[in-house]
């Protein structure tokens, strides 16, 4: 019987292991698909260099568009911050700009807004880390963009000098570290003394069968539950706690006589245009083949410019799909989040001409990042289509389409 149970348990374990999808560095697949493809589109993201020593900079640049297709179930975007998404405090954020403006804190965001960001990170902990840009939006959370691996090698030294208003320069990484450690340790000792006293020496815990029989507010000194000596020691611990607070307040007041409230700095970034108007686009439906990771979207495009235009990119959430070869794809962003785009018919659209285009993407990105909702109550997908004319001008157009699944992978777990 035991052998049979062990065989069944092993089989179930293997089934679970086989059915679990690939795990990415930050669980990009964890969010629901609509949170990725209906809210934002990251593009032109660059994370370089891919190898640094401790203390050396890593630059993260790119653009993010807050889509006009923002879901009705979410609070409209208002306050946001572009942040590095990394596995813990392994980097330090040195500086950050949004649309060319220094962005110490948050900024005001809106649907349809385009935000060009630049962040400088300093390597802090040695290891191989997955680095992403993300946009944290009030009421929604952090929406993660494409990421790339960065190796931080030991050998350097992490330093973060900051000049105060009085002209003094401090090392932010270590400033006040010893005081914070010893101060916290003193509070920890008081807490441990209280816990050990009541846990190991008193019948309140070791004889619960007795203590739960007593009425409320009964110290039961006759059976040694809470004695006058206990009151004395608790008064001593309480007195020491109050004394610790008074000492800390006095130390802060005398050591730092000039104190300033913590400052916030919310900015309204300058506007970035989606480009000159070249095309009017209408989505005519989409299908998704889950077995082959193939998305097919049909769009009707009318050229309203005075020169021929063509589709060059389609951006879906953190992923960019490029009409072109390896060279064009390498420029589009981190390789794990870039794929190929097929456009039929592939010829340019002349001025005043209207064409029915079929945009086809076959990429494992759809399943590994879970970009397309195929098991949700509402199966919509949004994309940003980039058009370009012969003069190099570009326009970004956001479209939304219902998605009809055509084939499913087997799913053995919910």
Q: Architecture of the largest domain, CATH level 2?
A: Sandwich
Radius of gyration (Å): 30 Å
Question: Reading side by side through the largest sheet, how are the strands ordered?
Answer: 18-17-16-21-22-14-15-20-19
Instruction: Write the CATH fold name of the largest domain.
Output: Jelly Rolls
Shape: elongated
Approximately what portion of the residues adopt beta-strand conformation? Answer: 35-45%
Number of helices: 8
Q: List low-pLDDT spans.
A: 16-24
CATH superfamily of the largest domain: Particulate methane monooxygenase, b subunit. Chain: A, domain 1
Question: Could you name the CATH class of the largest domain?
Answer: Mainly Beta
Give the count of structural domains.
3
Tell me the structural class. alpha+beta
Helix content: 10-25%
Largest sheet: 9 strands, mixed
How many beta-strand runs? Answer: 22
Please describe what this structure looks like.
This protein is an alpha+beta fold and 414 residues long. It has 3 domains: 28-165, Particulate methane monooxygenase, b subunit. Chain: A, domain 1 (Jelly Rolls), CATH 2.60.120.570; 177-255; 279-407, Sandwich (Immunoglobulin-like), CATH 2.60.40. The protein has 8 helices and 22 strands. The chain has a 9-stranded mixed β-sheet. Strands 2, 4, 7, 9, 10 and 11 form a 6-stranded mixed β-sheet that branches. α3 (177-200) packs antiparallel against α6. The radius of gyration is 30 Å and the shape is elongated. Mean pLDDT is 88; it is low at 16-24.
């Amino acid at each position: 019987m035991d052998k049979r149970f062990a065989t069944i348990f092993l089989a179930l374990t293997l089934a679970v292991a086989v059915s679990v999808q690939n795990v990415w560095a930050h669980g990009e697949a964890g969010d629901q698909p609509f949170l990725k493809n209906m809210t934002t589109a990251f593009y032109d993201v660059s994370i370089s260099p891919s190898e640094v020593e401790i203390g050396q900079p890593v630059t993260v640049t790119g653009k993010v568009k807050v889509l006009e297709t923002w879901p009705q179930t979410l609070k409209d975007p208002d306050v946001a911050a572009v942040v590095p998404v990394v596995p813990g405090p392994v980097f330090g954020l040195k500086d950050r700009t949004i649309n060319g403006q220094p962005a110490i804190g948050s900024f005001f965001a809106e649907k349809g807004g385009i935000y060009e960001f630049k962040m400088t990170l300093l390597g802090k902990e040695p290891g191989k880390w997955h680095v992403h840009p993300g946009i944290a939006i009030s009421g929604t959370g952090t929406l993660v963009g494409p990421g790339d691996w960065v190796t931080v090698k030991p050998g350097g030294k992490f330093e973060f000098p900051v000049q105060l208003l009085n002209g003094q320069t401090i090392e932010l990484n270590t400033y006040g570290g010893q005081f914070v450690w010893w101060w916290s340790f003193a509070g920890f000792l008081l807490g441990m003394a209280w816990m050990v006293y009541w846990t190991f020496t008193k019948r309140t815990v070791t004889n619960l069968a007795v203590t739960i029989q007593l009425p409320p507010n009964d110290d039961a000194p006759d059976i040694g539950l809470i004695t006058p000596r206990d009151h004395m020691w608790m008064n001593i611990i309480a007195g020491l706690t109050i004394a610790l607070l008074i000492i800390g307040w006095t130390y802060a007041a005398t050591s730092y006589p000039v104190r300033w409230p913590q400052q916030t700095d919310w900015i309204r970034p300058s506007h970035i245009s989606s480009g000159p108007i070249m095309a009017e686009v209408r989505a005519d439906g989409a299908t998704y083949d889950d077995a082959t990771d193939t998305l097919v979207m049909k769009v009707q495009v009318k050229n309203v410019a005075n020169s021929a235009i063509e589709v060059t990119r389609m951006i879906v959430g953190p992923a960019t799909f490029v009409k072109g070869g390896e060279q064009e794809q390498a420029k589009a962003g981190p390789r794990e989040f870039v794929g190929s785009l097929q456009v039929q018919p592939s010829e340019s659209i002349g001025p005043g001409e209207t064409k029915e285009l079929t945009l086809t993407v076959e990429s494992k990105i759809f399943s590994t990042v879970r970009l397309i909702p195929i098991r949700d109550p509402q199966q919509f997908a949004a994309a940003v289509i980039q058009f370009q004319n012969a003069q190099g001008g570009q326009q970004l157009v956001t479209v939304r389409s219902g998605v009809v699944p055509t084939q499913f992978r087997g799913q053995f777990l919910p």
